[in-house]
């Protein structure tokens, strides 16, 4: 294949743009912000799970407090009713029965009130845990939002760089003959790098030195001959006059 040396040199610009695009692709896959987002999201999930656990325990105790308060209230109403019956002219037998019932109500009320106090203390302690867990979950949410914002900014920068590189690539290819462009693309897809500058005896694509025989073949080729590196297969772009 033949191509004007000036056209061949455009492949170096194309290779440089492709190298930049490769770096963008690598950077996109290895953004530290991606790791940070993953870690922050896992931490948020853990904090939310902790909050659910303590909130569930708190709700259970809260329901128990309400149940005990309801029982104590019922006992008080029953006590009030009995006292009203006692003061309403009950018979001696009724008075005796009411007194025994009041004694039982008082004992039961005392047990329930002690139990209620204990559960309320537990609920109060858990309320502090709920508050701390809520604060921890909120802080974790803010952390996720912060790292996501930095990730999005980094991705936006990469998108801009990629768009710029893609546009530059298209512009260069528009000025490269179709056959030469197709050869470059095929080599790039197979080897990763499509072209490199021959610097002395070293290939700019694979960084290896050509042996004496291959180097002589390259030097003897016509300026418009498209030559390739025997090591990596990339198009060797020679400096003007060499």
Please give a structural write-up:
InterPro entries: CT398_CC_hairpin, Oxidative_Scav/Glycosyltrans, Zf-RING_7. Pfam families: CT398_CC (PF24481), Zn_ribbon_9 (PF02591). Keywords: Coiled coil. The structure is a single chain. By secondary structure, this protein is mostly helical. It has two domains: about 5-25 and about 175-235, no CATH class; about 30-160, Helix Hairpins (Orthogonal Bundle). The protein has five helices and four strands; from the N terminus they run ααααββαββ. The protein has helices spanning about 5-30, 30-85, 90-175, 180-190, 210-220; strands at about 195-200, 200-205, 225-230, 235. Strands 2-1-4-3 form a four-stranded mixed β-sheet. A hairpin with a 2-residue loop joins strand 1 (about 195-200) and strand 2 (about 200-205). Helix 1 (about 5-30) runs antiparallel to helix 3 and helix 2 (about 30-85) runs antiparallel to helix 3. The two termini are about 20 Å apart. The model has no long low-confidence stretch (mean pLDDT about 95).
